[in-house]
Write a structure and sequence with these properties.
Layout: E1 2-3, H1 15-24, E2 35-39, E3 50-52, E4 54-59, E5 61-67, E6 75-79, E7 85-89, E8 92-94, E9 97-98, E10 106-108, E11 111-113, E12 116-117, E13 120-125, E14 132-135, E15 147-154, H2 159-203, H3 209-221, H4 224-304
Antiparallel strand pairs: 1-4, 2-3, 2-6, 4-5, 5-15, 6-14, 7-13, 7-15, 8-9, 8-15, 10-11, 12-13
């Protein structure tokens, strides 16, 4: 039997105990948790006289405990289970003493009756929460320091639940084993990858200072693989930069050459223009001289003719 801590009601230690509680039909906490009501002769049960139960142990059934207050009580109404069905209470203790006449203390139809067999008190309810009432008059313990402990066992109708839980546990166990195997395989793969990364990093350890700086930057960012990628990207950037410089130099040289050729062509054109201007001046001079000659010849003829 697995023992649970007796602190807060409904606290259970592990998953196996939770499965046992599920099979037994017991909820360790909440509105459906085990509870006990008490009353005196002539009174009824009410919410002011209710004691919460707690799970003490699980195993061959569920062991429950109830700490009773210092109040008069003649009858108690036990509601140990949350699920409809068939249950039995093989034994119960009151203030540390076994209740030997437990079966005779069961109340049936308003009076005491033998609502039990040789294996203990039976509780059956196919539609609601199972409950049983006991006559506790005459039991030891007075009105203080009383504590009830009992063992609750599920009847034959719990076999289906037990089978279902067993199948679930088996499936979870197989999944757990597969999960462990997958984690182990992943660990081996990660270790191998780590070794390969280490080899690559050793190979490139002789890179220039720029690459070393890139590796240190990658290490600060988190992982050696990132450092390696940063170094490789740094080398690629150097090659790209060198190519860009060469392209710029080549373009500049071509532009200088083109400008020189253009300047030379411009000089040739300017010289041609100058020669054309000189030729134009000569032609203008010739025309001017010719016009002047014609003008003076006409005046000379007029003068000779007496102004006509």
């Amino acid at each position: 039997m697995t023992h649970a801590r007796e602190a807060a009601p409904g606290r259970i230690p592990d998953a196996s105990a939770a499965l046992a509680l599920a099979i037994a039909g017991v909820l360790p906490e909440g509105d459906a948790a085990p509870r006990l009501s008490y009353r005196s002769v002539g009174d009824g049960y009410d919410d002011a006289r209710v004691v919460a139960g707690r799970v003490i142990a699980v195993g061959d059934g569920v062991q429950l405990g109830f700490d009773l207050p210092a109040a008069p009580m003649d009858y108690i109404l036990l509601e140990p289970a949350a699920v409809p069905g068939s249950y039995r209470i093989p034994h119960m203790t009151w203030a540390g003493e076994t209740v030997a006449d437990l079966r005779r203390r069961v109340m049936v139809g308003g009076g005491a009756g033998d609502h039990a067999g040789p294996e203990g008190v039976r509780i059956e309810n196919g539609h609601g929460r199972p409950a049983v009432e006991f006559d506790v008059r005459g039991l030891a313990g007075g009105e203080g320091g009383r504590r009830i402990e009992l063992l609750l066992q599920r009847g034959p109708d719990g076999a289906a639940a037990a089978d279902a839980v067993a199948q679930l546990a088996d499936r979870l166990s197989r999944q757990h084993a597969l999960g462990h195997a997958g984690i182990a395989r992943l660990g081996r793969e990660l270790a191998s990858a780590s070794d390969r990364i280490g080899d690559v990093i050793d190979t490139v350890s002789g890179l220039p200072a720029v690459a070393a700086g890139q590796l240190q930057l990658g290490a600060r960012l988190d992982a050696r693989l990132d450092a390696l990628e940063a170094a490789v990207e740094g080398r690629a950037a150097e090659r790209s930069l060198a190519g860009l410089v060469a392209f710029i130099e080549r373009t500049a040289a071509e532009r200088v050459a083109a400008e020189a050729a253009a300047a030379e062509a411009s000089a040739r054109d300017l010289e041609g223009i100058r020669r054309a201007l000189d030729e134009l001046r000569e032609q203008v001079d010739r025309v001017t001289n010719s016009v002047e000659n014609v003008f003076w010849r006409r005046w000379l003829r007029r003068l000779r003719r007496g102004g006509r």
